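It is worth pausing here to work through a concrete case rather than discussing structure prediction in the abstract. The textbook approach is simple: state the sequence, then state the predicted structure, then interpret. We follow exactly that order.
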Amino acid sequence: MTDTRTCILIGAPVDSGQRRAGCVMGPDALRVAGLSAAATSLGHRVEDRGNLGPAPTRPARGRPVLNGLAETVAWTESIAPAAAAAAADGFPIFLGGDHSISLGSLAGIARHAETMGRPLFVLWLDAHSDFHTPETTESGNLHGTPVAYAAGLPGFDAFPPFPAPVPGTRIAMFGLRSIDPAEHKALHDHGVRVFDMRALDETGIVRPLREFLAEVEAANGMLHVSLDVDFLDPGIAPAVGTTVPGGATFREAHLVMELLHESGLVTSLDLVELNPFLDERGRTAKLMVDLTASLLGRKIFDRPTRSHN
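Step two, the predicted structure:
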């Protein structure tokens, strides 16, 4: 990543992709936790474009099990053009909201990458693969579908056609701990690189991440990083409605972010699934801000000491 960026903050207070209330407060919680100050302290410029609203909602046809389909389509139609515009102006940071915001952020970033004539790569940091389609999801929660949408899988007829679908070979997922059988088969069939927590426990996180980053660099690719709170162990990040034990530790998560900074390859970022209603005195929001700061260039010896009082 270059020394100085224009970080463009785009809030997307979306909670239609799942059924637990609270993610609508995520964007403002990240702001209160000091995201802008963290970026500016590292020499970056910050432009906060505020919180988006959904496009006009229209009836959308889909399986009865699907939760908030029309609303999620409307959010996707709103976020995608805002994402493309922000990507042309600087380094977009999308503040969620549940992970269904990535239906829009990925679509907009893919449109921008296509305009630039560069391949888009995706790094998915999550306990879940989010590789369901509206036809395969059993829960009906559309926050579990963004990567399948980006990869061009069928079943998204209610959504705008995805611009320039991303081949599975340009997608890497780290930290997975909960994958449904239908997703497992689809991930294999499409060649998505999957590094679940067992693989990371056995081999470590550095080598596979550096190998993926080397491929992005060799292709002159753009790299979109999507960071879900549940990538982290719930012991350090409780503010998420989809907790899965055994997630990334504080040290592992910061290591990932520092490696991403050193690569200079990241061109856009999602911060998603923060539910402040479930937080403990803002500790998860502060951790997400600290991780973003590591991505933006903060080194381990620059990290402030926090009081436990």
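Step three, interpretation. The CA atoms of residues 53 and 213 lie 34 Å apart. Strands lie at 6-12, 45-51, 91-96, 120-125, 171-176, 193-196, 222-228, 266-272.
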